[in-house]
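chain below, 382 aa
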Amino acid sequence: MRILKHIKFYLVFFAGLVTHLQSQVLITITSVPKETPADARIFMPNSLNNWIPDDPDFELKKDSAGNYILQIPENKGTLEYKFTQGNWETAEGDHNGNNSDNRKLTFSKNAQNVENKILSWERTAAKKNTATDNVKVLSENFSIPQLKTSRRIWIYLPPDYATSTKKYPVIYMQDAQNLFNDATSFSGEWKVDKTLNQFFTEGNRAAIVVGIENGGAERLNEYSAWNNAKYAGGKGDAYTEFLAKTLKPYIDKNYRTLPQAKNTALIGSSMGGLISFYAGLKYPEKFGKLGIFSPSFWFAFKDLNLFVSKSAKNLKNTQFYFLAGVKESEEMVSDIEKVIPVLIKKGVPPEHIKTKFDEDGTHSESYWSREFGAAYLWLFKN
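prediction:
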């Protein structure tokens, strides 16, 4: 009987071991550009790690055959990813050294060996400028006194801005590198300018868009008001104060805007979605429309939920547009669904909340670009 018990134990153990092995995905790079340094470190920023270009948990290691390998756990849905040498200036490119589309991996619940070939590094060729003529860099070094730093700020003006005397609503958007121009994007652009220009030709309401570039290595710190044990954070209060008390007053003073909260929006994705949501809750008298795309609520969900329930107020006029892919992560949709009843309890009318959860939605610029127009039309439908 004791022998049978031991046999049963080992059968269960090895069955579990086999299941564990089957749940792993092996990422392999079999070829890199000839100019790649022999000691190059290659990373895999992706839709699971907020596209961090030098995340040590997603660094590939060189094996005896000269290939770069990384083993990641099985997950659900589709993973989008790229390779870098540790920053977005050294991201992989296409055959011509230009920005390449995100790679995609569909998890299958079985062991997979996914082979990749890196065709070029983007720094070997200039990326194409795709911004429209009505997009300009407002400032290369706009002062952020709250953080004792500066940042590049972009501005999109409606096609008729120079030929009219109209005043316009304003949208403040995070991660400006990815909004208008393929030459500055690290994983594709949102095409905000192209979408709004098309809407303008169709007779839809025009808006000014102000894009704030993220701080690179400081992005996670600035885009969360709370600390995460692994990824830091905690500078979000200073950043949102900059949006509300420095940047918005400057834009309202120097451009023909409709400055009321009902005419002012914040839109962001991932960590940008988290900080846009927080800024809208903290300053509802400044920002009355919020576009929250694939928000990284997981980064500090307990603190965020406590803030919504205990500190948020005067939200009865704020509009919320939540967007997410059903298979982006285990908690993406559920975290949004947990926050909504709290918002309603705080006085937000249910008709002021719109959710769109897509089966094919991914944590990527291509998804957010596709959905930006619908969010804009809903937020500014009145």
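Residues 8-22 have pLDDT under 50 and may be disordered. DSSP finds eight helices and 19 strands in the chain.
thats it, cya
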